[in-house]
User: Fold these one by one.
Assistant:
Number 1:
Amino acid sequence: MLTLLDLPDDLFSESIFTYVPVTDLGRFGTVCRKFHNMRHLVDEELKARDTALIVSQQYPAESPILSILDYRERVLSFERCSTFAWEMTRQAIEHEACPSHEEETGCQCNPLESFPKLQDGLRGGKNYFFFVQFTAMNKLLWEGFLRDARTESDDYSPLISLFRNENVDIYQAFDGEEINNGRSIFASVDEMFSSDKLVP
Amino acid sequence: MEDAIVKLTSKEGETFDVPRKVAMMSKLVKDTFSDDDDEDDEEDETEVKEVPLPNVTAPVLKKVIEYCTHYQDEEMTPIQTPLKSGTLDELVQAWYANFVKVDRNMLFDLVAAANFMDIKPLLDLTCLAVSILIKGKSAQELRQMFNISAELSPEEQAEAQRENAVAE
C-alpha cells in the first residue's frame, strides 16, 4: 500500500499541485522534509499559474497588477477574489431558484449570509482587495485596486463611496452617455482612489 | 477489432479479460500494441494479447478497468482549473465523484496505477481527489491524516512559515 509520501515528485508537480489552492500550496513546505524540499516545485507551479492568469485576463504590460504585486501575491489575490465571486454566484443562483423568491412576503433564504463579515478591515482574518476595471461602451474608464474596507471603520467601502459621490454620474457613464458635469469619470474616480491603491 | 480482447495481468498474476477499446485507454497498453505490431506486421489482429502490469495489484487493476469501462459510456468531463468548487460532486459527474470515494491507500494506489498505465483522465481524477484531501488542512492536520512525522528543524519550520506568510 502506498502513502502520500510514496508518490513520485513529478506527480505532485504535474498533477496534484495543479488542483491545490495557493494557500494550501504555500503551507505544504511546512509539513515535512520531503515537501519542504519540494518548495521549488511549488514555486514553479505558482509561476505557471501567474503566466496563465496574465494571458487569460489579458492584462496589458502597463497594468498596475503587474507592477504592484509579485507573482505569489497576484495568484493568491486572484484566487481569493475568484473564490469569493464563485461563491457569490452560487448563492445568487440558489437565491433565484428559491420557491418564495417572487412572493410578496419575500424570499426566506438568506444569500451571502455565509460570507465572512468585516472585522478590523479583514474578512475571516484575510485581507481582500479587488482589481477593478470600469468600462462603458467597451472603453476602459478606470482601472486600479480598491480596498475592501478601511481598518479604522469597517463600514467604509470605496465602492459605496463611488456610488454616493455626487461628482460622478456613474449611471450615466455606464449607460455610455456623456457626463454633463464636465468632469471625466476617469479623473473623478482616479482622484477618489488614488490614495487607496492598495499595497496588500 | 472492436471485439478483440486484451489480457491484463496484475502483479499477483491474476488476469483480466478486457475489450481492446477499454484497455487502449492506457497509453502503456497502446504503446505495447504498437511495439508488437512494428515487430510482427503479419500477426493476426484478432489474436488475444497479454500485457503484464507488475506494478498494479489485482484489486487496483479491477478498479482501473471499472473506470475505463464506464468511460466508454460516459466520458468524464475535463476538470476545469482554477477549480470553482471544493467538492468533487460539483467538479465531475456523480459516477466519477463516487468512484474516488475510497480509502486513502486505495486512492494513492489508483494514482500510482493511473500514472504507471498512463491513463490521463484517471490520473486527473485521482489527483483531484488527493488535492481535495489536502485542501484547507493545516500542516499538523496533514501530518496526522497521512501519518507523516514532523521532521523539520525549527529553523526550517521558521523559513517555510516566513516564505508562506503572504498566503496565511
Number 2:
Amino acid sequence: MSPIVKNVAVVLVIPITMFGLYIILHGHLTPGGGFPGGAIMASLVVLFFVAFGKEWAKKINKGILFFGESFGLALFGLLAFLGLGTSFFHNFLANSDSLFGMSIPFGANSGFLWSGGIIPLMNIAVGLEVFAALSIIAVVMFLENGKVMFSEKENNVGGKK
Amino acid sequence: MEKSIKISVLVLLCAFLLMAGMLMHNEDMPDSTPMDDYFIENGQVQTGSNNIVAAIVFDYRGLDTLGEASVLFGAATGVLIALGVKKSG
Amino acid sequence: MIFEILQAVLLLGIVVSGLLAVKSSDLLRAVIFLAAMSMLLSAQFYLLQAPDVAIAEAAVGAGLSTAIFVIAISKTERWENGKKH
C-alpha cells in the first residue's frame, strides 16, 4: 500500500488498542464487554494486513495466538469452577472487598471500576480469547494460497495425473 | 410463469408470518415475567456490576457464554487445522 | 413521531441494502452493501435501546466479517459466474 496508508495504520495503533481495552475493562459498567472489545482489537490486525501485506503477516507467530486463545478459555472455565463452593458460575468475589470487590448501591449511579467480582476478570479472559481466535482466522485465511482446492479437484476430474 | 408462482408463494408466506406474529403477541411492550423483575431488583446489588446485561451474560447465564466461547475456540482451531498447515510441494 | 420516521427510514435502508447485496453480481460490491446493512442494523439496535448488541454488531458485522469476506474474495474471483474477468 501507499505510505499514507502505512503511516495512518501505525498512527491508529494506540487509539484502537485503547478503545478496545476500554470496551473490555469497562464491560461491567458500560455497554460492551469481552466479545466486542476483542473484535475491535482483532480489526486492528486486519488493518495491518491491508497496509503491510503478506510480508508482515508471515511474521506473526501463530503459536502465541493459539496459546492466548487457549489461555483465555481456560481462565474463563477456571473462574467458573472456582465458585463451585456455592454453585457453578457463582460470583464469589462480588461484595467481598478484595479483588474487584467494591459494593455499589441500588439505583442509577456511575459505578466504580473496582467492582463486579468475577465479571471484569471474565471479560478480560473472553476478550483475550476472542482477539486471539479472530486473529488466527484472519491470519490463516490471509496467508492461504488461492484456488488450491479447486485446481486439485479439477486435476483429479480430468484424470491426467 | 414459474417465477411469478414462486413470488406469490413468498408474498403469501410473508403475509402469513406477519399476521401470525401480530396475532400471537400484541405489539406493545413485552410481558414482564418474575425472572425479569428478579434480575432488575437484585442483579445490581448481588453482582456489583452496573451493567445488568453483563451481570446476566457472565454471571446468571454464564454457562451459555461458556458454550459460545467454546464454539469460537472450536472454529478458530478448525480453521488452523484445515488451512494453517503448509502443504509440501 | 420523529422516532418512528427515523426507524422507518432505517428499516427501509436495511431492506434495500440487503436486496442490493443479494442482486449484485459484483461480489465486492455485495460485501460493501452487506457492511452497510450491518451498520444500519446496528443503528436500529441502538434506537431500540440495546446498546450491547449494537456494539457487537458494529464490531463484528461491519468490521471483521467484511474484512474476512474481502480476503476470501481476493483469493477466488470478484465476479459472479465468471463474467467480466
